[in-house]
Structure formats: C-alpha cells, structure tokens
Design a protein that fits this description.
alpha/beta; Rossmann fold; 17 helices; 5 domains; five-stranded parallel beta sheet; about 575 residues; single chain
Length: about 575
C-alpha cells in the first residue's frame, strides 16, 4: 500500500481549513465552537479568548465555522490569517490587519462600505485610533476579530501589538472609550500564545484572556467522517469508527488521513486489517508524522526530552500546565491528558516515538468489559426519568430565556414632534438579580424639551431607580432607566414541569412635550421573566456535590466496612 497523491481529488481533506458550506459533510462539530459563539453573543465581554492547539488540529477550520455562525446573527467578524506577516516590520503588521478588517467588516457599515476617511495605522497608537473609529461607526453591537497564527508576529512587534489589544480591553469601561465594548478578540496559536496568555504579570495578555484548549474528536466525531464512506460505495461496518479511533485517538489530521487513504485504496469493505495497514503506511511515509518526530528529536531541553521518554515508556507523569515540559509537549502536539496523567497523543505517535527512543513496542492489553452494579443502573434510570419529565420545561426555558437575543433595539417615529426615538434594552428580567436592567432611550432630531415617563402600572412588581418622569432638553439625546424585578427567594419560582410557561412583564415609555400635556406617544416594552437561572446554577452545584459524595461513599464501601470492623473488633 502507498499513500495517495495529495493532489488527487478526495472527499476527505487533510490540508487547509474546511469550508463551512462545501465541506459540511466532513465537518466534525467541536464543542469549543459553541463556547466561542456563546461568548461572542453575550451582552458583555468579560475576557478575550486564546484558542490553543498544535498544528493541523483544526484551529483555522474552527475559526471559519465561528465566522459563518456569527455572521448569521448580524455580528461583524474579521478572520485574519497572520502567516503572511512572518518577520515583517511593525508598519506592515498594522497596515495588513487594517486592510483585512476593511474587507471583512464592510457589511456592518452603512451602505456596506467602510468609510474612506478611516486612519491608515502604521504603529500601535494609530492602530488604537483605527480600532476606535471602526467600532464607533460600525452598525453592530459586537465586532469579533479572529487572529489566526499569532506565532508569526515578530517578538519585537508582539509586545506593542498585544499591548494595544490589552489597552482596548482595559479602557472599554471609560465613557469616552465605550465603543471599545464592541470588541472581542480571539487569538489562535500554540506555545507562544500559551506563554502570552499565561498567568504571568509580565505578559501583555495577562488576566484578559480565557484559554480554550482544542481537543481531538471523540468516537462519535470519527463516526461523522466514517459515515461518508457510504457515498463512496465502501462498506464501513459499525466498528470502523472505533478502529480508526484506536490508532488516531481522534487527532483531526490523522483521522482525515486514515479515511483519505482508505478512500484511495477503495476496498470493498473496511476491515480491521485494512485499518491496521493504513495506519502502518501513514507511520512509515506521512509528512505530518515526520514533522512531529523531527520536533521531538530536535528539542534540546534535556528535561523535556527526559519527560517525553518517561511518558513514552509509560512511566506516570502528572499532567500540569504550570510545568514547562508539559506545556511544551502539549503545544507540540505530542501528548494529551488522560485522568490527570500525561500520555502520548495517539497510537501512531506512540509507535513512532518508541522507534525514536529505541523502546520495544508492547502488545496491547485487552481490558475486560465493565459490569455496572445495580445501584448505578438505578441512579441512571432516576436521572433519565427526571430528564424526561422536565423536557418540556427545559425546552421552554431554553427557547424563551437562554437562546433569546440579549439586546433589543426598538425604533419609534415620534411624528407629532418631528423626532425619532430608539429604545435599547435587555428583554430578560431576572428574579433575584443583583444588578438592575438598563433601558436606554435615545431621541434624535428634536428641538423642544420632552418629558419621558416610564409607566409600570401594569407590572406592579417592578422597581425603578430614580424618578419615573424625566425631562430631556436639547442638545441632550438620551436618558437611562434602571429597573429591577422585585421578586426574591425560592418561593417566587412558578415551577411546574407539567405546565411550563414563561411570564412576561410590560411597561410603557410615554413621550410628550415638556410644556404641554398633548400630544403623547407611547412605546410599549415587553420583558420575559427569568425565575430560574440563578437557582438552576446553585441547585446544579449542590446536586453535583451530593452525587459526588454518594458515589465516593459507594465506591469505597468495602474500605468503610473494613475500617468499621477494625474499630469494633475486640482487642485480642
């Protein structure tokens, strides 16, 4: 068997990112994508994101998927590949990023074009001004900048560049810099990004980034790829995904490569022998494996070499991202974590590294099937019944609260005054909330003082901070109301899994001239009431803690009995 020509057409792809549309059949859903999208759609950004993983593990594909998803929600997204900037000077870095942002973000500007008068940045100061002008003029509540391959930025340029990103994050709470609140930066890379995002006070990204480590596919993800063999008239028995996974452990490149080689050899039926032969050929001839081995051999740090050898021979090594050797080996893509221990990432790598360190391979040990005791089955059935009973409630809660938009912009033409009002607010009112919900009213094109009244008579359990009646005089253009749902404690929760519903509250904004009672204009606002989120979190934590305690006790019953016997046994 020989590996197929990489230029030959293949259903499976091993080079370059997958297209969200054209390659959807071989796209494996990653749980990290949901987290990225959830953060991007949140009302506020608490931290920027660092997407960490070794080469050829799907980081760029994940960014393409994120861009496609967010654009469906009208969010401005710019995906910028920094590989072209390898060893480029500072002015080229800022000019390139600004040029890419102009192209990628054009749809979020009026008339779909970026204003021509935006500054052309050449250093960190002008780049900061460029980012501010973009955010100020863009017609979107969120701008997501996806920076891929940040490792290619020169070290001398990286400090001021990432320092500017830190400044954007830190200054967004200032009133004059509020436009910066729109930004979410997502940085993608490996070891250098891990160092920049680590808890090191000397790093420009210290304390402003959450690290997301990209994991490999599980067996279900491998099955997504294996299912495509039916399109090629190749029979793939039920165990095919597991056979692939046994060699690759779900490594995105190796999983695709295994499928691609099998596609090109085109057996009638995929057997264990076919998969084993494919893995052996990849081990002998694949350039990706060759690069991994070269990185392992060329690393000169004796501690890292010794740690890698210990892992290869199966010696226990704790997985700890505060340890230099663990971080380096993980970012090289050589190891992963299994039950808090370091293991070689997959069987193909292990076979290659055993050859490098001249370690004889051991035949795999067959683990007998596990039998589940009755108490575990009972707990599983109780959990399943509880879930089924609450499915209608969970559906209503998810659709009405979790997945609903967190920002509503209501535009009202005040024709009687020749003005326009825009009301921005979060449509979710939360019981037991610590902070009030803000309702911001902006009025445009008005020439005489106006009175804005928040009428909450139809919602008597809503509290208002400050006066309900406010005067707005030109040239002022906006006013804010802070409201709170006056519902506290567990007793206010209208929980009924057999009749799930979401309560609503309605208030009105009444706009009228300040110097006369008529005419008036009423703007209705509707809020959904979230009774559950805070309690679900606290109850969930309590249940998990209680379950962990029960499982620990049940798992150590014999030890408990032995200890009790020693305590109660008479001394002889």
């Amino acid at each position: 068997m020989t590996l197929p020509d990489s230029t030959e057409h293949s259903l499976f792809k091993t080079w370059g990112p997958l297209d969200p549309v054209n390659d959807s059949a071989i796209h494996v859903a990653r749980p990290e994508l949901e987290r990225l999208v959830r953060v991007a759609r949140a009302n506020t950004i608490d931290a920027y994101l660092a997407l960490l993983g070794s080469r050829q593990t799907g980081k760029t594909t994940l960014l393409y998927q994120m861009r496609a998803r967010l654009r469906q929600y009208g969010i401005g997204v710019a995906l910028i590949d920094l590989t072209l900037l390898d060893n480029q000077p500072e002015d080229q870095l800022y000019a390139f990023i600004a040029s890419e942002m102009r192209t990628e973000l054009a749809p979020i500007f009026p008339r779909g074009t970026v204003p021509k008068d935006l500054i052309r940045p050449t250093n960190s100061i002008t780049f900061r001004q460029f980012l501010f002008d973009v955010a100020r003029q863009a017609q979107t509540p969120r701008i997501v900048i996806l920076l891929d391959e940040v490792e290619t930025i020169r070290e001398s340029v990286a400090t001021p560049f990432f320092g500017t990103i830190r400044h954007v994050f830190s200054s967004r709470r200032k009133e004059e810099d509020a436009a910066f609140e729109k930004y979410l930066f997502v940085l993608s890379g490996a070891h250098e990004l891990q160092r920049l995002a680590a808890e090191d006070r000397n790093s420009p990204l210290h304390n402003i980034t959450d690290r997301i480590y990209l994991k490999d596919f599980d067996v279900a993800g491998v099955q997504t790829l294996v299912a495509n063999f039916a399109r090629l008239n190749i029979a793939a028995p039920r165990e095919t995904a597991q056979l692939n996974f046994d060699h690759t452990a779900g490594h995105p490149y190796l999983t695709q490569k295994m499928c691609q080689v099998i596609e090109q050899t085109h057996p009638h039926t995929i057997t264990a022998k076919v998969v084993d032969q494919t893995a052996a050929e990849i081990l002998r001839n694949d350039g990706h494996v060759e690069r991994i081995l070269r990185q392992a051999q060329e690393h000169t740090d004796a501690t890292i070499q010794a740690t890698l050898r210990d892992i290869v021979i199966g010696k226990p090594v704790n997985f700890n991202r505060h340890t230099k050797a663990t971080v380096k080996l993980e970012m090289l893509g050589l190891i992963r974590e299994v039950e808090s221990q370091c293991v070689v990432r997959n069987a193909i790598y292990l076979a290659a590294l055993q050859d490098v360190f001249d370690i004889p391979a051991e035949p795999p040990q067959i683990t007998p099937p596990r039998r589940f005791p009755l108490w575990r089955v009972s707990l599983l059935l109780i959990a399943l019944v509880t879930l089924l009973v609450n499915l209608p409630f969970l559906y209503v809660y998810a659709t009405d609260i979790l997945l609903t938009s967190r920002s509503i912009n209501t535009r009202a033409e005040l024709s009687a005054f020749g003005a326009t009002a825009i009301v921005r607010y979060d449509p979710i009112l939360r019981a037991n909330a610590d902070t009030p919900t803000q309702v911001r009213v902006e009025v445009e094109k008005f020439s005489e003082p106006l009175m804005i009244t928040l009428n909450k008579d139809q919602a008597d359990d809503i509290s208002l901070e400050g006066a309900a009646r406010r005067e707005l005089k030109p040239p002022a253009s906006q006013e804010r109301f802070a409201i709170t749902l006056n519902q506290h404690g567990a007793g206010v929760i209208p929980y009924n899994p057999f009749n799930p519903r979401t309560e609503e509250r309605r208030v009105e904004l009444i706009v009228q001239p300040a110097n006369r009672a008529m005419p008036t204009h009423t703007i209705p606002l509707t809020f959904r009431v979230d009774f559950y989120s805070g309690f679900i979190i606290s109850i969930g934590i309590s249940l998990v803690s209680a379950l962990a305690f029960v499982l620990t006790v049940l798992g150590n019953l014999q030890k408990i009995r032995d200890g009790w016997d020693r305590l109660t046994r008479p001394n002889k």
